[in-house]
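>> Question from a student workshop board

For tomorrow's exercise we were told to take the sequence and the ligand below, predict the bound structure, and bring the output to class. My setup keeps failing. Could a helper post the expected result so I can at least see what it should look like? The ligand is pyridoxal-5'-phosphate.
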Amino acid sequence: MPYTFCKSQQLYDRACKSIAAGVNSGIRKMEQPVPLYFDHGDGPRLWDVDGNEYIDFQIGQGALLYGHAPRGMADAIAEQARKGTHWAAQSELEIEVAERLQKMIPSAELVRFSNSATEVVLSAFRLARGHTGRKLILKFEGHYHGWADEGLVGFAPPPDKWGTEEKPTRLHPSQGVIPEVLDQFVVARWNDPAHLRQRIDEFKGQIAAIIFEPVLCNTGCMEPAPGLMQTIRELCDRDGMLMISDETITGIRFGAGCAQKHYGYSPDLTILGKAIGGGLPFAALAGKKFAFEKIINGSVIHAGTLNGNPLCLAASKWCLDYVIAKGESHPGEIIALGNQLMTGLRKLADRNKIPLRPQGPGLVFHCVMLKPGATEGIVTSYRDYVKRHDAPRWAHLRLCLLQEGVRAIERGLWFISMAHEEKDILEALQRTEKAFARHAVEWKPAA
Ligand SMILES: Cc1ncc(COP(=O)(O)O)c(C=O)c1O
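>> Workshop helper replied:
Here is what the output should look like for this input. Compare the format with yours to find the bug.
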């Protein structure tokens, strides 16, 4: 029998009376048929308050690279909690975590800790502007860099307003934002090195930094086109701009050296979040020493009461040691599992005549649902995605999956964790078979 969600519904109704819109992050409202309430997790599995058990591929929006509630991390946090939860001061732990990051990531000559990647993005922008004395940041259409005013520019422009291919418009998806924030950005399309060159030349001498998600995970899952990273590096070196790699999702997930090692480039600044804290509110700015100069000499401010919180540091130290102990087997193991799941999903989709096209580097991937008549082939940019992806149909399929105990992200993204094993993938595919069969019968496009 498909799962039901009565207790989650009751809690959500209750929450709406005390929590604005019932949730504490806007995106959680997307969950259909109701935002779910969870009771506990273990490895790759999660149980909600209705007693439904899920094989979880949402996995804390990618933060739980080690699965739910790893015992070693719980012990590390508990031990630290007994010594102190917050000092707003220094501890040897913070040096231990910083030294690990230095060893793992070649471009991490120095680091600074914060509580969320949203904050780290803001620090990186301030540092880049302080370093260059320039105002503009170039970012790519569809890339997400946190929910602050500056991180969201150009995230999800609607087709009627997104401007020409040559000059994408700067738009903000939220009201309440200072309009001038838009004047601080130049937007370019992703995966088109020639177009990027033109955009940079148009604003020559005015751009402080180029920021990007190395794999565009927040809209589809699009790996960088061959040569794109080299073009960004070359343009940054040529014009004195900083190269900012937002590895909030890809950092550590792609192995100790992050996506920058996997795709072979060396950024000036790197945003780290999610997996370095394993689910605790922990994030870091890492980068080359020269790029940190203004923080070192005190002319650019970076601060925070909870920065370098010992509970987060204890968790992070455990996470980094776990990755170091995995050695060369990470990320190969999770890539292989992800590829197995993508292949299985595609086979089942074909069998049920569902136009589902999983794409991505395996350890994270996206299920593109082709609109009727859409062309085949890998989706490579935000505009391409909006034109070809059938979001309502994916939402229906996602609900069928949820009702059979397979949990993917509402937007279509799937994460593999180090806690997933082959048996979980096979069981997920068995459950998927039922979900796809039901979707094939029940799905009716809007008239
Ligand atoms: C690429 C990227 N950058 C920044 C952020 C912001 O991270 P946080 O929600 O921890 O502030 C996210 C969050 O999903 C992200 O995916």
